[in-house]
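hiii, so i know i said id send this last week but things got crazy w the move. better late than never?? heres the sequnce for the chain we talked about at the cafe, plus the structure i predicted for it. fair warning i was half asleep when i ran it
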Amino acid sequence: MFQQLFNKKTIDIRQKKLIVVIGFNKTGTTSIHRLFQSSGFKSVHWDEGKLTKKMFENAMQAKPILQGYDDKFDVFSDLVFRTDSYWCEGNALYRQIEQQYPNALFIYNYREMDAWLESRCKHAEQLEEQTILELHKKILDTSDIEVIKKHWKTTRLNYEEELKEYFGSKSNLLEIDIKDVKFVEKLSIFIQANLNPEHWGLFNKT
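okay and structure toks below
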């Protein structure tokens, strides 16, 4: 009986209309999180890397990707996990999320390429006394910033091509520039809920 109730709960949770922000870090994820949170949504942002770490642990254990968070939150953003020698992008799991949560909506938030690359380079937050740039110097075994920028650019361009191929003409993905003057309006239409434009602004800018 308990197992039957558990299975029913799991099925119900996976039917939720979740909103998953699958843009890279430094593309307004904090601002998007605050917009949703201030508009009454249960939103989780990064959670000090624990969110993405849990997502990959779930994937390896054949569990629903967002299990452990999907019963508490509706919106998920800044899907990054890092150690002193590893960088992990949780947005790469969008296929599994879409397959496991069929009512989920996806937001690919982006910004102009050069501005994004510079923002990542300037990001001052540290883990184990390393910034994002310093960590990637170690990962890529280079001190050449241009090599790192090229790696980030290639990763993003490949990711964008994969998104187009996977989602095709589906209606559950919104691709939007965070500098779009109608950002809140377009996002509200996409999720079919009113977001308060008074709570939109770019935070943690670099």
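btw Residues 145-167 form the longest helix (23 residues). thought thatd interest u
miss u guys!!
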